[in-house]
Design goal:
- Helices cover 0% and strands 0% of the residues.
- It is low in regular secondary structure and 56 residues long.
- It has a domain at 1-36.
- The chain is elongated and about 55 Å long.
């Protein structure tokens, strides 16, 4: 929040929250969220997608 790290979370299926009160400014605020998925190596198709599309 406003270039201040307010927390981190590991896991994709559990809820989480952070108290950002100390990082808030009186007027405009900027929330930046960074996400990293170490399991996404782009080699496994998702759903009906394919890595080698062809035909109809």
């Amino acid at each position: 929040m406003n270039n201040i790290k307010v927390g981190s979370h590991t896991g994709g299926y559990t809820p989480f929250s952070f108290n950002i009160t100390a990082a808030l400014q009186p007027q405009n605020n900027v929330l930046t969220v960074r996400v990293w998925d170490p399991t996404d190596d782009s080699t496994q198709p998702i759903g009906k997608q394919t890595n080698n599309p062809q035909g109809i």
